[in-house]
């Protein structure tokens, strides 16, 4: 795949915010963890002032686990099938995040819908990345749907998590054209490249908002 494709990002990317002490984040991921890896890389280089306190995944074989192990980031596998009620499943995740003193929850390929119970525990402190230009193509098959519907433009969005699936205030979006030769695989790879660009900056933005609100409360 040719990685030199045209795209636009809005708002325009600027410098990362500085955090002292570093912003404490928890990452929720269900898959390979490429966005998670990007955050690890930026943290290790000192480019993004974050401390990844914990990774939570709901799959034993999720690729993100090996990425966490490699750099000794604490991780916990929490599977909904192990709990009689979804609220208990989410409570285990909530307690894990709280115990690790997480300030911002980052959903990076988290393939579970969260309930108001979870959202209200971290109000305005949960962000999610989604592979479409929201509010278009919500749900788990966004890239496939954009191609099947003949869309000419798509992209990815980072937003605050609210009760409605793939809703909430937008933080940043990246857009690109869907070419006639694109398929799910090629388009997915392009969108993934853009996700790696906008998620770190969205974390920086959300973290600044959290820290600012904290200071204003005093």
Summarize the structure in words.
The chain has 218 residues and is α/β, with parallel strands linked by helices. The chain has one domain: 3-Layer(aba) Sandwich (Rossmann fold), CATH 3.40.50. It contains six helices and eight strands, in the order E-E-H-E-H-E-H-E-H-E-H-E-E-H. An eight-stranded mixed β-sheet has the order 1-8-7-6-5-2-3-4, sandwiched between helices. Helix 2 (63-70) links the parallel strand 3 (50-57) and strand 4.
Our estimate of the beta-strand percent is 15-25%
Under CATH, the homologous superfamily reads Formyl transferase, N-terminal domain
CATH architecture annotation name: 3-Layer(aba) Sandwich
**Number of strand segments:** 8
Helix content: 25-40%
* Biggest sheet, spatial arrangement of strands: 1-8-7-6-5-2-3-4
CATH topology term: Rossmann fold
Count of DSSP-assigned helices? 6
Series of secondary-structure elements, N-terminal to C-terminal? EEHEHEHEHEHEEH
Q: Which stretches of 5+ consecutive residues score pLDDT under 50?
A: none
- Principal-axis shape: globular
Q: How is the biggest beta sheet arranged?
A: 8 strands, mixed
Rg measurement, Å: 17 Å
Return the structural class.
alpha/beta
Average pLDDT confidence is 95
- First and last CA, distance: 51 Å
CATH class: Alpha Beta
The tally of structural domains comes to 1
């Amino acid at each position: 795949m040719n990685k030199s494709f045209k795209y636009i990002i809005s708002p325009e990317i600027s410098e990362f915010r500085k955090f002292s002490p570093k912003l404490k984040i928890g990452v929720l991921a269900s898959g390979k963890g490429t966005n998670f890896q990007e955050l690890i890389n930026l943290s290790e280089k000192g480019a993004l002032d974050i401390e990844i306190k914990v990774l939570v995944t709901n799959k034993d074989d999720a690729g993100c686990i090996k990425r966490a192990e490699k750099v000794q980031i604490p991780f916990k596998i929490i599977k909904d099938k192990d709990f009689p009620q979804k609220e208990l499943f989410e409570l285990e995740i909530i307690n894990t995040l709280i115990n690790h003193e997480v300030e911002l929850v980052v959903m990076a390929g988290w393939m579970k819908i969260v309930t108001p119970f979870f959202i209200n525990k971290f109000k305005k402190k949960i962000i999610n990345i989604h592979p479409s230009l929201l509010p278009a193509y919500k749900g788990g098959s966004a890239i496939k749907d954009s191609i099947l519907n003949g869309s000419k433009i798509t992209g990815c969005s980072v937003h605050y998590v609210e009760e409605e699936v793939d809703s909430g205030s937008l933080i940043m979006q990246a857009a690109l054209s869907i070419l006639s030769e694109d398929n799910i695989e090629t388009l997915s790879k392009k969108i993934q490249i853009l996700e790696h660009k906008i998620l770190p900056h969205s974390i920086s933005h959300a973290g600044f908002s959290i820290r600012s609100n904290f200071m204003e409360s005093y």
